[in-house]
What does this fold into?
Amino acid sequence: MSFQIIGDSCCDYPYLTDDYTWIKRVPLTIELGGEVYTDNAQLRCAMLVSKMAASRSAPKSACPSPGNYLEAYTCGADDIYVVTLSDKLSGSYESAVVAANMFKEAHPAKNIFVFSSKSAASGEIAVCRKILSLAEAGEPFERVVAETLDFISGIATYFILETLDVFRKNGRLSHLQSLVTGALRLKLIMGGDETGNICIRGKALSMDRAISRMAELIAERCKGRDMSETVFYITHCQCPDRARLARDKLMEKVAFKDCVLLRAGGISTIYANAGGFVLAY
It folds into this structure.
């Protein structure tokens, strides 16, 4: 049985390696400064960062239409696995589900399932890699779906941003919170809860301390668990050295199998901004 993994464009790209061509990406769009950009491999994220800094308003993203997804589903594969941004963060999941129902009605012999990653960026890639490992091993469709859902229920996502400006502009952070964190130069350690919503997990007075504290929090979560077969993923926005520091700090505390560094695509860029990174496993 042939299979295809399809993701929205918050599935980020490996840093300095191939582009994960086994993922078929369906792009979101980004509106910024009166211009609309398609979030694909050709989008220059450094340009986005520059335009965001010059804009008084936050960039806005729009999810793919069901028609966009439907076109991607028509790929000839027998088993189709779709991974989207958390359904709490974007309409991408709902759009993908609508398209999946349309596709299944037209192609009843095909198998298709849409996963809300309950995460974003590196978290989506973690889900995609889980699907890939199961499908390449020849697991039947139903088992791939069940094991992936179980994986998603335990996924952990953490992120630290250099600036909270985008969160302030789009209303996810109050003006008062923004002033306090800015005045104290606090770095918030944020993450996704079990439902896929954003929460604050800790804070520190510098980026280095925040990275160390994040590693401690993850070590506490992993205590007593065998992580020797687990890979973690880090999406960074124009800060590879910072991503490597986070990787090294965490590997010192937890015996993960490996770490994969990813570069931010457009959607990850407009939320992480320059200097931000997202870690998931």
